[in-house]
Amino acid sequence: MDKDGVVHFSDQPGSGDAVLITVIEPNAYEPENPSAADASGSRDTEPPETDDARYQALSIVSPTPDQVFFGADALVTATAEVDGTLNPDHSVVFFLNGNRQVASELSAEFSNLARGSYTLRASILDRAGRPVISSEQITFHVRQPSINSPQSPQAPKPPPRPRPSPATPR
For residues 108 and 102, what is the distance between their CA atoms, to the nearest angstrom? Predict the structure, then answer.
């Protein structure tokens, strides 16, 4: 806090009275190279993955990039596709706006999403929870239906406005 009472946050050490804040359970960041040595220089002793556990590609096939869903009751089913056979010791997780979501094999369902844009990425994790491969991140959107942007082309049109009847001469 400075002399004016304003609190400042930084990722660099500051004054001697600075307070270190530790995130309890980070779930949005995954290292690019999970097998690289950590800051202390130690390496994990787990044996490297075998050739049959390597994956050529992981991609999200549903929803499609920039797909639009209408209404708060919309159900978004995320589906990933892997080039290779999923190792039984590996698990698939989805990251919705950076937050880890449980997946059932290669899919997950999201409901009660508020209006807005969402980012989605899939990862295959080894038994230690380290990413083996991750998909490209996609964005999808949840909107509210309106007369100008109905949910689908088959959405019913609003009833026509009643026209005033012409005045009858007396």
Answer: 7
Second CATH level (architecture) for the domain 54-143: Sandwich (2.60)
- Which residues does residue 80 pair with via DSSP β-bridges, in sequence order? 60
Segment-wise mean pLDDT, segments of 10 residues, the chain, 170 residues? 74 68 51 47 48 76 94 88 89 92 88 91 91 93 75 55 65
Which residue reads 């997780």 in tokens? Answer: 93
User: What is the Cα–Cα distance from 78 to 68, expressed in whole angstroms?
Assistant: 13
| Predicted model pTM | 0.57
* SS3 readout for the chain: CCCCCCCCCCCCCCCCCCCCCCCCCCCCCCCCCCCCCCCCCCCCCCCCCCHHHCCCEEEEEECCCCCEEECCCCCEEEEEEEECCCCCCCEEEEEECCEEEECECCEEEECCCCCEEEEEEEEEECCCCCEEEECCCEEEEEECCCCCCCCCCCCCCCCCCCCCCCCCCC
